[in-house]
Amino acid sequence: MKRWFKYVKPYLPYFIIGPVCMIVEVIGEVLMPKFLAMIINGGSEETLTVLSSVGTTVLMIITAVMMMVGGVGGAYFGAKASANFAADLRKDVFSKVQKYSFSNIDKFSTGSLVTRLTNDVTQLQNFVNMLLRMCLRSPGMLIGALIMAVTMRPDLSLVFLVAIPLLLIAIAFIIKIGFTRFAKMQTKIDGLNSTVQENLTNVRVVKSFVREDFEEKKFKKANGELKNAGMSAVKVMIFMSPVMTIIMNLTTLAVLWFGANIVLSGDMRIGDLSAFITYVTQILSSLMMVTMMLMNSSRAMASAKRIAEVLDEKIDLSDELAEFKDNTVDRGEIEFKNVTFRYHKNSEEPVLNKINLTIPAGKMVGIIGSTGCGKTTLVSMIPRLYDTDEGEILVDGINVKDYSLYNLREGVGMVLQKNVLFSGTIEENLKWGDQDATEEEIKLASDYAQASPFIDSFKDGSDTVIEQGGVNVSGGQKQRLCIARALLKKPRILILDDSTSAVDTATEKRIREAFSSELSDSTKIIIAQRITSVMDADMIVVMNEGEITGIGTHSELLESNEEYKEIFFSQMDKKEA
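Below the sequence we write its predicted C-alpha cells.
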C-alpha cells in the first residue's frame, strides 16, 4: 500500500472530499423512503394535513438537492483524483522503462510494456475512481438502510440472516475464480499488442514477401486467444448478475409475503412496508455494488501486479557507485581488458571471450568478421548498453562503470545497425544529436553525412515530415540521416555499426573522407561487412566466434591473417566478376 499511497498523497483532498460527497448522497437515499412512507401513511389514514404535506415535500426537495450535489461532487472529485493518480503512475512506469538496460528490456516484450503503460494503468485508474465513489457509498447505504429496516421492523429484518450470507458466499466464490481469469486476459492483451506492433512496424517486409495471409492468421490466433480469455472472465460477471438478482427478488418476495400479512393484521402501515421494501432493495443493491467493486479489484490487482513487476525490476546498469561522475570523455582512448560477456548468464558459451584490445585516441578503427561473431556486442559495451561479465573497459584510462551514464554516453555517438528515425521533421530528428544546433551546424553535419543532396531535393527541405519509423525515406537516406544526427553530437568516440550498408561505395568513401578531415580528433570505430569500408582504417580488428583473431593495418593483415585474406579475396573476386 505504501507504493500506491505515493500517488494518492499529492491529491489527498480529492480522495477525501469525493467519498464525503458520496456520504451526503447516501444520507439522502436512506432518508427518502422514510419521507415517502410518511406521505403514504398519512394519505392512507386520511390524516395528512396540508401543512405536513408541504413540509414533507420541502424536506424531500431539499434532500434531493443534497443528493444531487453529493452525487455530482463525488463523481467530479473521484474522476479528478483517479486521473491524477493514473497520470503520475504512468509517468513513473515510463521513467523506469527509460532507465532499463538492454537486458532489462529483453525480459519484457515491447507489446507487454505498452499494455502495462496503457491498459493496466487504465484498469487501476478505473478501479480508483470506482473505489472513491463506492468505498463509502455502498457500505454507508448498507449500514444506513439496515439500521432503518431493523428499527422499523426487527422481526421482518430476520430475512436478511438468510439473504446476506448467501450473497457473501456467492461473492467470495466469484472473486476467487475471477482473479486468475482477469490476469490471464491481461497476458493475452500483451500478445495481441505485440502482434499488431510487429506487423505495423514491418509492414513493408510483410508486403514484399506477400505474407499478409500469414499475418492475418497470426493476428486471428492472438485475437481469438484474447476473445476466449475475455469471455472466460466475462462469464464470471455474467454468472454474478443473475445470482444477485435471484437472491434480491426472492428476498423481496419474502418481505412482501410476510409484510402483507402483517399489514392485513393491522400491525404495520402500508407506507412502512413500502419503505421497508425500498430498504431491502438498497441493502441488496449495496451488496451488489460491493461485489462489482471487488470484481473490479480482482482485475485491478492483476494489473497492479504487472505494473509492480516493471517498477520492481532491478536495473542492472546504474552509476550509483561511480567514482568519477563529473568526468567527461576527453580524448577517446579505449581499452578492453580480458572482457568476457554472455547474454544469458547461465550460458556456457560466451558471446565475447577474453577480449584484449587498445584503441588509441583519434584513430579510425575498422572491425570486421563473420555475422554473429560479437562485433556489435563489443562496441555496445563502450557506452554501457551492456556490462561485462568479466574484465573491464576503460575510456581515457577510467573504467566505464566509474563515469556517470550521462557523461559517458554524451561522449559517445553511435549509429546502430537498425537505423531508427522518429515521427517529426528531418530537422527535429537531427536535433536529437544537439537540440541547440544552429541551421549552419545542421547543414554542415548533413554535408559530412552526404545527406544534403536528398534533403535539398525535398520540397520542404529539412522541414520535411518523417513518418513513423522513417518509412517515407529509403534505407540509404535513413542511414545518412542517422549519421548526421550522430555527427551533430560532436562525440569524442563515434561508432558506426554497419551503418553505410545501404549506401553506394562512392558515397561511403566521401563519408569516410569527411570523418578523416573533420573528425580528426575523434576516435572512429567502423563495423562493416564490406572490406572496402575498413581498408583505409588506421587499425583493423578481425573477429571470429567472440574472439579477436587479428589486429593490424590492411597490408599487415593481408600478410598475416588467413581470415582477413579470405574475406578480402572473396569480396574482391566477386567485385571483379
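The CA atoms of residues 185 and 229 lie 5 Å apart.
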